[in-house]
Records
---
Amino acid sequence: MPTAAERYAAAVDAVLAQRTRLRGSEPPADLYEDLGAGHVLLRADPHRLTPNQQAIADLIEPEDVVVDVGGGAGRYSLPLALICREVINVDPSEAMGAAFLSNASAAGIDNVRSIASNWESVPAPSGTVALVNHVTYLTRDIVPFIRKLEEASRRRVIITVHSPPPPYRQHRLFELVHGEEEVRVPGHEALMGVLWEAGILPDLQMLGGVPMGAASPSRSEAIDVALNGFRAEQWAFWRYEPALRSRIEQVLRTNFDELFVADEDGFRPSWLDYGRDVLITWRPEVDRQDPV
C-alpha cells in the first residue's frame, strides 16, 4: 500500500500533468510580474484583520520570529509584525517580495525582511514560528517541506489551507472550458494523513467561511473579472494563450445566465466553491508520537 506521502505526491503529479497538458509548461519568468500595482494579490493592510487572520494572530507571542513561507505580499504576516519581534518572508517571486516590503513601509513596519527564494532552496531561517498559508496544495515532496518548517520553528508550526482548496475552486467552470473533469489538488484531509504518518499530532480548527467577492455592476465587467480569476485555477497564474482566453470568454458569454447570479448589486459567479479555512498547528517538540 502506498504511504500517505506517496499518495500526496501522486495527487500533485496528476494535477501538474493535467495542467501541463492543457496549459503548457510553467513559464520560467516571475508569474506575478505582470500584475498591476493595485492587484489584490499585491495588497495587504496590516491594520485590518479578518476573523480567520485573528485566529492566527492569537497563536503569536511578542518575542516570536515568524518565518512566513510563500508569504507573498504579506497579507497574513504583516499584521503579525505589529505584535511580534520579527517577520521573515520567504517567497520566490521578486514582485511579491517588492510588494511585501512596500506594504510594510507604507504601514510604518520595519521589523521585517524578505528572502527571494523558494523554500526548498534556501537554508531554513532561524525562527520560533513557521507560517504557511495556501502553499501546500502543489508541494509534491511534502515530508521534507514539513521537516524544514520544523527546523525553522522552535515553538510552533501554523498551516492554513482552504476546503475546498482554492486551486480547485472553479472546477465547474473548468469542466465547461476544457471538456473534462478537473483533477483535485490535495487538501487538509491528505495533509493530515501525511502529518499523522510522520508522527505529528496537530490541532485542526475549522475557521469561518470566506465571503463571496464583490458583485460586478455589468455583464461585461463580470466576464472580465471571471477571466482574470480563472487564471488562478490549478495555480496557473501565467498569461493566457489567445485561443484559451477566447474559449473561456465564449463559455462565459454563452452560459452567462446559468453561471452568474444577479442581485441588486450586480452579477456574482455561481460556480465558485467558497467553503471554509482550515487551521492546522502543532508544537514540534511536544505534539508527537512514534511515526506510523
Note: The chain has ten helices and nine strands.
---
Amino acid sequence: MSDLKELEARLRRLEDIKELEDLLARYSLTADLGRTEEYVDLFTEDGVMDLIDMGLARFEGREALREFINGSAAADAAHTALHIALPTVFYVDGDDATGEGYSVMQQRDLSDGFNEPGFTGVKVPIKVSVSHANYSHWTFRRVDGVWRIVERYIKLMASPEAPEIFRKSIKQQAG
C-alpha cells in the first residue's frame, strides 16, 4: 500500500511541475501580447513583481500589476519577447511552491526590416538581440485548485546579489 501512496505522490509532484511550467508559459505570452487581465489573473490577490534590481519598482497587488503591464508590456509588445528560460527548478510543498531559473528579454530591431509581400506596411524584423537577462526566484500558491504567482523576484545576471536567487538549488547541490 505504501508503494501506491508513494507513486501517487510522485505523480502529483510531476503534475504540479507541469502546471507550473504552463503557468510560466502563460505568464510570458500574456506579457508579450499585452493581455492585461489574463496576466494579472496569473497572480494571487496579493501578488508581487519585484523589479527593483532593474531600476524599476516593486509592484504589489493586482492594481499595481495591472498598471505595470499596461505601462510596460503593452507599450513594448510589438517589439519585445519575454522568455522564461528552462530549466526552471521547482520545489513543491503541498499547495506552496518556489521556482528558480532564468529569463531573457529579447528586443526586435525593426530598422533593418523589410516589407513582406502581402503584408503592406508591415516590417518583418531580421535582427533580434537580448536586451537583458535575469535570474528569477518565483513563489507560487495553489488557490482553489489553480497555481498562481505570489511573487517574482528578479536580479540582473551581473548583480552581486544574483546568487541569492538560487539559494535552494545551490543548497540542494551542496547537501
Note: The longest helix spans residues 2-32.
---
Amino acid sequence: MSERFDAAWLDLREAVDHRSRADELLDPLREWWTAVQGATILDLGCGTGSNLRYLAPELPGRQAWTLVDHDEALLQRIEAPSADVAVRAVRGDLAGTGLEAVGQARLVTASALLDLVSRDWLSALVGACADAGSAALFALTYDGSVVWPGGRDPLDDVVLAAVNDHQRRDKGLGSALGPDAAHVAEGLFRSRGYRPRIAQSPWRLGPGDAALTRALIAGWERAAVEQRPGLAPELREWAARRAAAAASPGFALLVGHVDLLALPPTG
C-alpha cells in the first residue's frame, strides 16, 4: 500500500478517533472473545498504534498483538500499553505480509483503513478471516458524508464530490472502495456466514478541535484541486472561508464514519 500518513496528523486525530468509536460494538466483541479464549490480535495499517491504545484496555486477559505497517518510522513509536499486552511490530505491505498474518490471529482489526483498499484486497482479507475463523473489527471507515454548521457554502457540494472521487483512487491496492467500503465489507462477511454489524462513529468536531479541522480542510482542498484543477482558485477561497470559522463558538462539523464488527459463524 503506497498511502503514507504523517505522524503529526495521526497524533492530531487520535483523541477524536477514540471518542468517536462505536462503543456499542465492544460488548458483543468481548462476549465472543471471552467465549473463544482469544489472545492473538492482528492490526493492519497500524500507524503509531492508536488502535492498540484504544482497544487493548477494552479486551480481557493477556493479549499478543501483531501490528503491520509499511512505515518503519511509525512502527518505532509503538509501545505496549500494559504488562498484559505483548506487541510485535512488523514492517510489511498489506497485500503480502498483512494477509499472510491473518491465519495466526483470533481478531483482525484496523482503523481508518477500509476506505483506502480495493474490493479484491478486501475480498481476500474476508476469505482469510473466514478460513482462520477470525473475528474482525474495522473502525472509522469514512462513509462519504459531511455536515457543516449553519448555512451551506456554494462550493460544499463540489468539494465533497471531488473528495469522494479522490477517495476512490488507487492507494496501492487497486481502485479504492472509498465511501462504499463498509457496506461492501458487510456483504462480503455475510456471504461467508458471518454476523456483521455496522454502527455509526462520526467525527463531531467543535471549536476545541480547530487544529484538526483546519488540517482536514487543507487535505480536502488538496484532494479537490487534484480532481478539479480548473477550480483551484475558488477551492483555495473555499478552504479559507471554512477554516476561518473552525474555532468560532458554536462550530460543529460532522464527518461521517462507521465501525464494522464481524463475528464468525457459531459452531
Note: Residues 7-144+173-204+254-263 form a domain with the Rossmann fold fold (CATH 3.40.50.150).
---
Amino acid sequence: MTANLLRTKLLDAYEHAGAPIATIYVPTRSDTENAEQRLEIHRDNIERSLREAGATEAMTALVKANLAELDHASGAAHVIVSTDEAIIMSASLERPLNEARTWLESTPMLVPLIGATQADYVHVAALIDRSGADVMLRSGVQAPLDTIEVDGPYKRLHRSAPGGWSQKRFQQTAENAWELNAREVIDAIISDYPDVDLIICGGDERAVGFFTSHLPERIEAVVVAGSRHADADAFLDEADVALRDIAATEQVAVLDNFRTALGADNAVKGSDVIDMLVQGRVSDLLVVDNSMSAAEPPMIDFDFASSTRSGDQPVNAPLAETAVALAVGSGATVHVVADTSDTSDGIAAILRF
C-alpha cells in the first residue's frame, strides 16, 4: 500500500545523517487556553535548548526563523529538522503533542513519528449508495485531502413492487441500474486517483457489494459501517480503525517473518544489524520506539562519510536512528515495532539473502 507524503519526508530526512542535526517537536494546538502565549514560550525554550546543546548560531537562526512562522492554522503540532545550512523538513502534524522536545544529534530523531505514521496509508474513503458515492482522498488518519461526489446516470431508478408477472423485470432493471452506478463510481476513482491501491468503503449493502465486486484486483477493499445519508465523521472514524487494524496486522506479520528468518539463520539483531546494513544485505529493518523510556538510548560510533563503524572521523550517534539512516540509503523497509524480546538494543533485521 502507498505510504503517505509525511512518512516519505521523514525517511528522506535521514539522508542528511552525519552532520549535527536538530530535531524539534512543538505543540501548536489552538484549542487550549492562552494558545499563542504557550507557543511563544515553546519558541523561547527551544531556542535556549539548542544553544545549551551546542548548536551553531547559523542553525539556531534557521530554527528561530522557522518557529516564528508557525501558527495554529495548519495542525496540532509541528516537526522541524535542520542542519547548519538549511531547514530540511518543516511539517505540520495532525496528532497533538503534550510537550516540546529538542534534540541535537548526528541523525534526525524521528523513529517515534515514523511509528505513529505507520497506519497512514494513502487511500480513498467512499460512502456509497445506490445512486453514487461521496469519495474522499486521504493520506491517513486525518481530514480528507480532496472530495468528489459521483452520481450515476441511473440515480432516479429504485426497486419497485408493481406486482404480477412484471415484478421480477422491474426488480432486475433496478439492480442493473445500481450496478452501473457502482461501476461509474469506480471509473471516477480510477480517473481522479489512479495510484490509489486501498479503498475503505461503507454504505448501502447492495451498492457496496456491486462496488467491491467490480474493483480491479490491484485495489484492496475494506468494508466498514457507514451511510451516505448520515454523519460522515462517524464513517471516517470507522475508516481510521480499519487503517490501524491493517498496520497492526502488518506488524504481527513482520515479527512472524523475522522469527522464521532468525530460525533459518537469515536474520540478525543488535549491533550486528549495522554491519548487515552497511553491506546492503537488509531487506526489513525492525526498530523499537524507546522515546518514552527514561533510559539513555544505545549509541554507536559511526562514520557516515565512509559508512563504516571504524572510519577516520566517527561520530557518536543513536543506534536506532543510525540504523534507519542506513536502511534509507540501502533501500531497506523500515518497521517500528513494539518492544519485544525479538530485538536487541532496539533493532533487528531480516536479510535479503
Note: The first strand starts at residue 21 and ends at 27.
